[in-house]
Amino acid sequence: MDKIVRVNMSTLTSSNESVPEAWAGLGGRAMTSTIVAEEVPPTCHPLGVNNKLVFAIGLLSGTSAASSGRLCGGAKSPLTGTIKESNVGGTAARQLARLGIRALIIEGMPPGDAWYNISVTKDGITIQEETALMGAGNFAVADGVRARYGDRVGVMSVGPVGEMRMALANISVRDPEGKLRSMGRGGLGAVMGSKRIKFIVIDDTGTPAAVPLHDPEKFKAAGKRFTKTLQEHPVTGQGLPTYGTAVLVNVINEAGGLPTRNFTQGQFTAHDAISGETIHDTIVARGGKPKHGCHAGCVIQCSQVYNDADGKYLTSGFEYETIWGLGANCCVDVLDDIALADNILDDIGGDSIEAAVMFGVAMEAGVLEFGDGKEMCRMLREEIGKGTPLGRVLGGGAANVGRIYGLTRVPVVKGQGIPAYDPRSIKGIGVTYATSTMGADHTAGYSITTNILNVGGHIDPLKKEGQIELSRNLQIATAAVDSTGMCIFIAFPGLDIPDCLAALVDMINARFGISLTMDDVINLGKYVLKTEHKFNLAAGFSNEHDRLPEFFSLEPLAPHDAIWDFTGEELDTFWNF
Amino acid sequence: MDKIVRVNMSTLTSSNESVPEAWAGLGGRAMTSTIVAEEVPPTCHPLGVNNKLVFAIGLLSGTSAASSGRLCGGAKSPLTGTIKESNVGGTAARQLARLGIRALIIEGMPPGDAWYNISVTKDGITIQEETALMGAGNFAVADGVRARYGDRVGVMSVGPVGEMRMALANISVRDPEGKLRSMGRGGLGAVMGSKRIKFIVIDDTGTPAAVPLHDPEKFKAAGKRFTKTLQEHPVTGQGLPTYGTAVLVNVINEAGGLPTRNFTQGQFTAHDAISGETIHDTIVARGGKPKHGCHAGCVIQCSQVYNDADGKYLTSGFEYETIWGLGANCCVDVLDDIALADNILDDIGGDSIEAAVMFGVAMEAGVLEFGDGKEMCRMLREEIGKGTPLGRVLGGGAANVGRIYGLTRVPVVKGQGIPAYDPRSIKGIGVTYATSTMGADHTAGYSITTNILNVGGHIDPLKKEGQIELSRNLQIATAAVDSTGMCIFIAFPGLDIPDCLAALVDMINARFGISLTMDDVINLGKYVLKTEHKFNLAAGFSNEHDRLPEFFSLEPLAPHDAIWDFTGEELDTFWNF
User: Fold this and answer.
1) Mean pLDDT of the region A215-229
2) Less packed terminus of chain B by CB within 10 Å, N or C?
3) What is the pLDDT of residue B52?
4) CATH code of residue A459
5) What is the greatest pairwise CA distance in chain A?
6) Chain A environment of B538 (Cβ under 8 Å)
């Protein structure tokens, strides 16, 4: 029987509720954003007693649907002050689904100074004081939890960065092989830290192997069609499995949209040193894994295992965003330095995108030199990881560093660092950065598809025409996909192969015995965006926050001499739906 | 002939303009806010090329009117992101008035890395590269400028804090005796630093001794009546001249509204050690000056010269706000530590209110111990003054420290630290903090008059009734007074003795040969507030920013167990005029 589980950290108690009628059709981001919008006062302090940390599985979590293993987390963000949803692979979504837990809502704040762990099993919730693993990095936590609870358990944890409630903090989730995935953006780890929860362990022992399906045969048939589209599309079937997301390094560099040296250039001369092709060859030469899934049932396998020169594990889930950011944006061209930084970020529990944008700003401030990957790693481990004053500065994220050093070239929207595509030369993604309810977020409406990859048609990235509509349609579709538990990469076949989304809808219908249409799914996406936007307005955001930083309009970007030239009035039309 | 002078730092040129018709009746805050609202894009970066730093004299500056020597500075604030006006005593207002300069507008930003000084004389503006005094504190700058330009000159400068563009940075202005006054709030020193101006020297040699008056006799008669009201009122005639503003320590402590230990208590057990009475006796015993004017022609003389135990100068302009904040709010009960901190803040160029609120938060974060005044002084000099990483954290102000250490008890509104009156037990001032266009600012609408001092009647500080009207009326009146160049303390007789404001209006009429009425003055105040509010809305502020921090509604304050209980709807009625 599906349920909502509440954990009250003020009283250290928990309770189960049946899923309210109004939430029955919601999953993932639709669920987290609905709960946050209904239950969290928009003007509350994000690290205070009135914020709530909500985890929600998707509509297809726990089924055999390909690439359906994403778990959503939501709260009011301490980084942006907006509503926030961030999602992650790993085993947790599937395990919560098997336990029948559609959403886990963590509220309140413990009295005193003690820290806690939360254990989730078929017998219910146990909240225990935690001492042994306090201060530990996420790798040690994952190992320690497995030693204590067994190998099968899922783990969600915060590292020292989350314990210290830095805005950089992510939530780490174990993947099927015991490696770490990150619910990265928006500082959700600081919210978990504010509630003084070091880790959540999920043990689905004693539950059925899969969630119940209303119509198993229909589900199986739709699932096959769906998987076929993922395998047939060149991006999800070939590009991502072969080179991972870092396949984009050369593509975006060629387009002149690879932000370099803190967003002062659109191309990185050393792009080859950090490209997906180079990474692939390096992984193969060192005996790593060029393909790897972040969750069971993933057919895209964009992750990988990257070893060091001695063939020892260095990092996994080594994403384009991280590589771009710690690489090109910081002028670091030594791949192993970037990989080590990624590993340290996994361990201390920091978002690699925010860290990358932050280091670009810190380098401009003269805190360290552009190109000094070794010093970057030292600062991650010794300053941020240990909470020195400098570490606190850096751990506050890019906007924080910019403010503290009095800089004007600070690439953030609503306080969140701008990811790996320059909005001057790829304008559709700029519209997404400006208008997303999440602050700057490429995944919210990934226009790179149509601006650069010619997926879903083509819209010239350097021109304004069509970008707002593109971003709007993608943001609506993404909000819907984020509610299913699906990986956002299904959008590639989704945009090009009509049967992809049709099969997705058929799976949802077969799972629940309902009869959603494509229009219903689009309406769900619109509902999610409007719910989030309403929360943000009530939290004090206005149209004037749906803007890019001033410097994008003042400084043309080579090689296209591109400038950000959308007016506020134009951007505000985004919300006309 | 009165004029507007523009200095363009991008081209290192200046120009004179006659005063536009629309600005002819404006002075002080009305002038700065009008110019900022008309010429600064509300969403620009406060430290960027599009912000402007505007200095404006008041309508009565340069005349013999008592207490008319205040100079206003305005810009978009790097601390709050709002429009900002901050005013200051010293000699600059009078000297600019004698030079016929109604407003000095500094725009643009120099190319390259060089720093500059600006010299203002009857022959015009000279912009020169500055090297010798770079890095120097404000005392050394004032001395160095006098050595270079002569003893008579006025000086406005930034210390290292302003050079480093920290949000804590103020602008220092020389007083008639060569001591320093501060244009303190809102980080205007960082704006001056962003334009790479170390100091502005004003030499009024060769100008008439006073500004021309349209009707000298009428002016003289009105001036006498005006001065009489200042001398007759118990606050401006006795309390302030005898004990300075620190007369309030015991008064506010008795009322249970003296924020103590980072706003966790409303009374400080050691209040006697830092009271106005103790300060007065200490000053007298050590051969200091218990009375001292911040500008020529001041009849209130609330400033003083405070010597150390050896009878050597320690500080002046030692205000209640500073003493409360570095004292009670930080649990420091050693007056000499507080005086030394005040002196260091004058020298490095930091706002003492923001510093005080910031240290309270930093002490709660464990950065230093509550009560450790020696360490506070060391951090001011060695960390903030030298821009170490910790200094950067602290120099970012209270909101910054709260964000970086993940705290929830952070007493700020719109990013600016809340001054010396707890809004839970003195609710009128809470309305001012919440609704002021400036962020938390007690001078914007000083309800302490009527809530505590029974000036202008009495409204129970612990009840909600009448507070919004009180704050509204005071904010309107203050915006008008801030436009005259008058010290805000004229509000005491202004509220109690009808002839005070009548005489003020008569002086303005006699100065310009116009016939303003009292209604015109009130309308000027309303115009100023609405102009500022409109700028803030266009900069992205909304009703939800006109709120106090959540903790004031969650934590009752002893001894009255008072809570902040205004709803957002109630606060929003402030703007109904």
Assistant:
1) 97
2) N
3) 98
4) 1.10.599.10
5) 61
6) 544
